[in-house]
Design a protein that fits this description.
CATH architecture of the largest domain: 2-Layer Sandwich
Distance between the termini: 137 Å
Largest sheet: 5 strands, mixed
Number of strands: 5
Oligomer: single chain
Shape: rod-shaped
Number of domains: 2
Number of helices: 8
Length: 266
Amino acid sequence: MTQVNVLLFAIVLSASAAAEPAVAVPAPAQAETHAAAGEWREAYEARTRQLAEHEAQSKLREQAVAERIRTLRSTALGLFGALLVVLTVFFVRVMHDRKRLRDLAQTDELTRLPNRRHLLAAAGQALQRARGDHEPLALLALDIDLFKQVNDAHGHPAGDKVLRQVAHACRLALRPTDLLGRTGGGEFIAVLPNTAESDAAMVAERLRAAVAALVLDPIVQGLRITASVGAAGWDGEELLPRLVSRADTRLYRAKTDGRDRVVAKG
């Protein structure tokens, strides 16, 4: 009978182990007590309850681990999102600062027009396009007459306002495709793509008239200014420095001939 009891107890333990082969279960003390007393049904039920409780505890642990993983994942995603926002803001600020520095390097701070260096670089590109497309191109050199006297008589703040007014008037008198820049003092250069020298003379006269028509009373009561302009058309072969030099030569001739005029020949 003892051997039968042992055999039955072994069957109970084997059945319980088969129910959860991958889980290590503590010694079933209660089940052993019932088995020792020959209470096989109670032993089986006790062992079954122990397995169910162990399985429930395992599920709770798994759920806790899964919840922790979800929490860590959410935290990581939140940190990544915050880092992405910070990096985006930093990138935008860097790009803004780079653009601002580039604008400062290329723009005349007073008139907001391209400065001499930037304008001549753009003029060189325009000349290369004209050469490649076999199109005409012209250049105007404009200088405000007696501008130094404006600064001397009314101060540099008044002179700065005059420069801004002249820049605005000239910009309005040109086409959107034309280039205009301040090259220093009261001097400006305009680059006219796809424009022959005869047409450039008419554009130069339009600029001269626009400057002469400026009403500057809000700056200085009774102040009137004029400008002299030299116009030169590209000959199809010369480099940009030569074209600029010819326009400058005609500008100075306009000055010596009495100012407030356009010279586009000779």
